[in-house]
Each structure stands twice: as structure tokens, then as C-alpha cells.
Design goal:
Length: 582
């Protein structure tokens, strides 16, 4: 915009109107006035939205008299007027005049007054220093304690200030980096204002500080028995906790090469035997889980079947004959997982679940028996065939059946067994073939002993008994069990409802004295099996079971209370308390 008719030797002043400043005490955007701004270099910036007026003064003094210039020919557009161009604008006089001689300078040139208009707000952006970020569903996930930075830029008058609100608190001026240290979801709002009052629209960003490591576990889909799996099993690594989301899952098998988990681990590709899988996960922001370990045994071997005829039999011409009273016995053995089921069919009939030796009555002529066995991880033996004419002898392959029993006080809490130090343990075994011979045992990995009679364990704490039974032909079977020996009695506590009001000495014995409204509370704790009951005897009265606080104690008397506590195993403790009631 050019203004040509200006009196020389005067000062031109450009003024503008402002809006009042108001602070809103919420997370809503604050009010910011439009204004002018002069930089240290002397550049004048005005808000393009501002109405402008021209004033003339004959003095540079701010308080000097000045007159507003009005246009005779363009009144409609000059009082006020508006700059039409973003950025560089000018106000001009027709020619330059020497300030001393007051003569026109030749060649004639305009005097230019530069004014810069600005109508565009700043642009602000957030960043995170030295932090790995991940965006999902309009949220930014960051790892660890991070520093939030806001950078703002403005193309014209420059950024005056940036304001920030965290979790809907009132906006405050951003003065520097903001540390986000707590593991939580932050709601960040921010905007910037330039030097002439252009206000950026409020921006917002949800930031989730994720300090938690991922959690994964192994899932076995089928053919699992204890820690034994078959060659048809798939082991899947499952995510228990995701946080920012899983980036990658890694695993190794038997300390071999580290791999990225892409799908179930096929146990059929592993050799038969014990294996160790280590697995861990890294989330989207770099939190790394500690290594997990899962040990398992791959069992690919089906059970071995041995068949025999029990009872009357006669052999002639290499043909074994049996009577209808003879029984057919099927024994299956398995190398690891153990036998789950045995099936048989007679003369191609339906498969029947085998449970015990059966009679061959009802069959005439040649008898064909087919059998197969399945172990606890579903390995199935190939269907065998035993013909009646085959000559066989009895073979005892099974070890004894072992059992144990506690003789004395026993307390069971979920899967934990507690016994007293005088509770005896009895070990027994049965063998239906060659018969039971003897049992050996060891306590908590101690020396091996031969069992002869029930025994007790005096030592307090957790114990494991491992024992082996042998039959008359040397077949053996193993078993073990765990229990806790507890011979520690409960701890007894007494508490008075008020503090003592004094004490006295009787026969050199110091006794606390309590007011006659005193109440006595009794309690006891047991750190293993828990308390069964508390009883007490007050002076010469009969023993009573404690069920409620002891009250109504007669004044002017001395009291002696004997307290007894018993835990759920029968361990007992007692305590004597003497006091006086005033």
C-alpha cells in the first residue's frame, strides 16, 4: 500500500486496536491479543487482521501532539485501512528531501517506510529425546523415562511463546523439556503464539510411557503329559502381556542359533530326548523380556507289548494248547511317558479296552489276537499279531505297585502335606507276579536305606522321600512324595484394651495394675499349618475355650491366666500372664 500525500518533516505513527487478554483456568486455549512487534533490528511487524490508522507528529517524543491523517478521496477505505499483502508492505512519500537544506534529492526517489504483516500462526511439533517410539491408534508409545520437546517455528514475526497442558491441567507456558517418568498414559495439548498475536490451533497427542517388559509363556496344544510331549506336538509361544505391542519373539532350542518366532515349534523335527527352549520378547518400544526357560522331553517311541497265556496249557507238535480256563495277559511297557491304554481284538472283532487278563472261553479252533497300546502322549504301537499256535512262556516284566501312608497327625493344605515330628511314614509295595522282595528309600537326597519299619523325621522343614521297590525277579518301580515336618507350636500374644495405671510388687514379683473396665484379648499365630484353638484357665477356674475377649474382671483382685494354643497338627504352646485389677 502506498500513501503519497504526506507532510515532510513529521513523524508518521501507525496504531492498531487490541482485544483484552483473559486467562481461562482450564485446559481450554487461553486468550491472546493481536498486536504489533518491533524487532531489535528495527523491523516492524503487524497483525494483518488489525485495523490501521496514520498519525502525524512534528516531534519524536511519544507524548508530543499528533494528528490523525484522513483521506479526502478514499475515506471509505482509510479510516481505518488494512494491509492487503502478507509479509512485506510499504508506506511511501513522493521524494526524498535533505534533512538539513530541506532541498529535494535528485534523482527523485520515494521515501519508503517498511511494514511487515503477519496473519499466519506458528507451527509446533513434539519430539522425544533419545527414545524409541511406536504409534498405534493415534497414540505414541515410548520406552523408559523420556523427555518431551516442543519445537515451534514462525515464518514472519517469530514465535513469542508456546503453551502446554498435561492431562487437562490449565495451559502454562512451555519453558523447556518436560520429563515423563511415570508409567501411564499422558494427554498432551500444546500450541504456540507469534509476536503479533496469531494463535495456533490447539494440538494434542496421547503419549503412553511403557516401562513394562513383555511377558510370554509356552502353550502346548496336544499330547502333553507332565513335561513330556510326542513327536506330533506343537509348542506355541503365547503373549501374556503386550503393553505397546510385541515387536518380535525370539527363541533358541538347546543353546543353538537364536531364531525369530514365526509359528509353532514342531517337536517332530527334534530328536527324541530332553530339550530346553529359551524364549523372550521385545515390544514395540524396545522393552526386552528376561529369558524364559521351558524344559521338555520328546517321546516318539510307542509302548512295547508282551503277551502271554496264563493257566492250563499243553504243548504238542510245537502247538501250545490252552483250556477255556486259561487267561490271556497283555503287558505294555513304555520308555518315558508311561502306558495310558491297551486295546485288543479277538478274531478281527471290535477293539476292546484291556483292563486285566481275560479268559479265552467262547473261542474254538485257531484264535488270532491283535493288540496295540497307547502311551500318555498318544504314541501308538503298531498292531501286532499273536497266534494261538505260538509257543510262549510266562515273562514277568512289571515292577511292584508302591504306596505310602502316614501314621499320626497329618494336615493337608491344598497340595502341601504337613506332619508332626512324631508322625511315622510307612512304605508298602505289592507285586502280583513274582512277588514283593524289599524296598529301599532315601530322605532328602540322603543315604539309601532298606526299609524295615515305619519311621519318623525329627527335622523341621520340607522333606522329599524317594523310594524303590523290587520284586522277586529284580523288577523295580520308583516313587516319591514331598511333605513338611512342623513341630513348632503357635506363638501366643495377649493385649490389654487400656494401658496399665501402675504396678505393684508381691513377693518380689512385679505386676501391672489395670482399671476395672479393662478387657483382655488373646491371640496366637502359627507360621505353617495355622491355629486350631486357644484355651485359657483364669486363676483356679476350669479351662475354657477362648472365643471372645475376657471382660468383667472383678476389681481388687490379682489374676493369673494360663493360656494354651494348639495348631492344626496338635503342636501345643502355653504362656502364663499375671496382673492385677484395681
Amino acid at each position: 500500500m502506498n500513501i503519497n500525500s504526506v507532510v515532510l518533516g513529521t513523524v508518521i505513527t501507525v496504531l492498531f486496536s487490541t482485544q483484552p487478554f483473559a486467562t481461562v483456568y482450564s485446559q481450554e486455549q487461553l486468550k491472546h491479543p493481536v498486536k504489533m512487534h518491533k524487532t531489535p533490528e528495527g523491523k516492524l511487524f503487524v497483525n494483518k487482521k488489525q485495523p490501521m490508522y496514520l498519525w502525524l507528529s512534528a516531534s519524536p517524543d511519544e507524548n508530543a501532539a499528533k494528528i490523525r491523517i484522513e483521506s479526502e478521496g478514499h475515506k471509505k477505505y482509510t479510516n481505518p485501512f488494512y494491509f492487503d499483502t502478507e509479509g512485506y508492505n510499504t508506506i511511501r512519500t513522493p521524494s526524498q528531501v535533505d534533512t538539513t537544506t530541506k532541498q529535494t534529492i535528485y534523482p527523485i526517489q520515494d521515501i519508503i517506510f517498511e511494514v511487515y504483516t503477519d496473519s499466519r500462526p506458528p507451527v509446533s511439533k513434539v519430539s522425544f529425546e533419545k527414545a524409541k517410539t511406536y504409534s498405534r491408534e493415534e497414540k505414541i508409545y515410548v520406552s523408559g523415562s523420556v523427555t518431551l520437546k516442543i519445537a515451534a517455528s514462525d515464518q514472519m514475526s517469530g514465535v513469542e511463546k508456546t503453551l502446554i497442558s498435561i492431562d487437562k491441567e490449565p495451559f502454562r507456558e512451555y519453558s523447556g523439556d518436560v520429563a515423563l517418568t511415570e508409567e501411564k498414559e499422558y494427554f498432551i495439548q500444546f500450541y504456540s503464539v507469534d509476536f503479533v498475536g496469531n494463535v495456533e490451533n490447539v494440538k494434542h497427542q496421547t503419549v503412553v510411557v511403557d516401562l513394562s517388559k513383555p511377558k510370554t509363556s509356552i502353550g502346548i496344544k496336544k499330547d502333553l503329559f507332565e513335561n513330556i510331549v510326542s513327536g506330533n506336538t506343537q509348542a506355541e509361544i503365547e503373549v501374556v502381556e503386550s503393553g505397546s505391542g510385541i515387536d518380535k519373539i525370539y527363541y533358541t532350542i538347546d543353546n543353538q542359533q537364536e531364531r525369530v518366532y514365526l509359528g509353532p515349534i514342531q517337536t517332530g523335527r527334534l530328536y527324541e530326548g530332553e530339550h530346553v527352549v529359551e524364549f523372550w520378547a521385545i515390544d514395540k518400544v524396545g522393552n526386552k523380556e528376561e529369558k524364559n526357560t521351558y524344559t521338555f522331553y520328546v517321546d516318539k517311541t510307542p509302548p512295547l507289548i508282551v503277551e502271554e497265556i496264563m493257566g492250563n496249557k499243553f504243548i504238542a507238535n510245537n502247538i501250545e494248547y490252552s483250556s477255556g480256563r486259561s487267561k490271556y495277559k497283555i503287558t505294555a511297557m513304555d520308555n518315558k511317558a508311561g502306558v495310558k491304554e491297551i486295546f485288543y481284538s479277538i478274531n478281527n472283532g471290535p477293539n476292546v479296552l484291556y483292563s486285566e487278563p481275560f479268559y479265552l472261553e467262547g473261542s474254538k479252533g485257531n484264535v488270532t489276537i491283535r493288540t496295540y497300546a497307547v502311551d500318555n502322549v498318544n504314541n501308538k504301537s503298531a498292531s501286532g499279531q499273536t497266534n494261538q499256535t505260538m509257543s510262549k512262556m510266562y515273562v514277568d516284566l512289571a515292577g511292584p505297585v508302591l504306596t505310602h501312608k502316614f501314621m499320626g497327625a497329618v494336615f493337608v493344605d491344598r497340595d502341601t502335606i504337613f506332619i508332626k515330628n512324631d508322625t511315622k511314614t510307612n512304605l508298602t509295595g505289592q507285586d502280583r507276579e513274582s512277588g514283593m522282595d524289599f524296598i529301599e528309600y532315601r530322605i532328602s537326597n540322603g543315604e539309601i536305606k532298606r526299609f524295615s519299619e515305619p519311621f519318623a523325621i525329627e527335622t523341621e522343614g520340607l522333606h522329599k522321600i524317594q523310594y524303590t521297590g523290587y520284586d522277586k525277579v529284580g523288577n523295580s518301580n520308583n516313587s516319591e512324595f514331598i511333605f513338611v515336618v512342623d513341630h513348632k507350636a503357635p506363638e501366643i500374644y495377649e493385649r490389654f484394651s487400656v494401658v496399665s495405671i501402675g504396678n505393684k510388687t508381691i513377693l518380689e514379683k512385679k505386676m501391672e495394675v489395670y482399671p476395672n473396665h479393662v478387657t483382655l484379648f488373646l491371640s496366637a499365630t502359627d507360621d505353617k499349618v495355622g491355629l486350631k484353638e486357644i484355651s485359657y484357665k483364669l486363676n483356679d477356674a476350669a479351662i475354657r475355650k477362648y472365643g471372645e475377649p475376657i471382660t468383667n474382671l472383678a476389681p481388687g483382685r490379682d489374676y493369673k491366666i494360663e493360656i494354651m494354643a494348639v495348631d492344626k497338627l496338635g503342636n501345643r504352646n502355653s504362656k502364663t500372664v499375671e496382673f492385677s485389677v484395681n
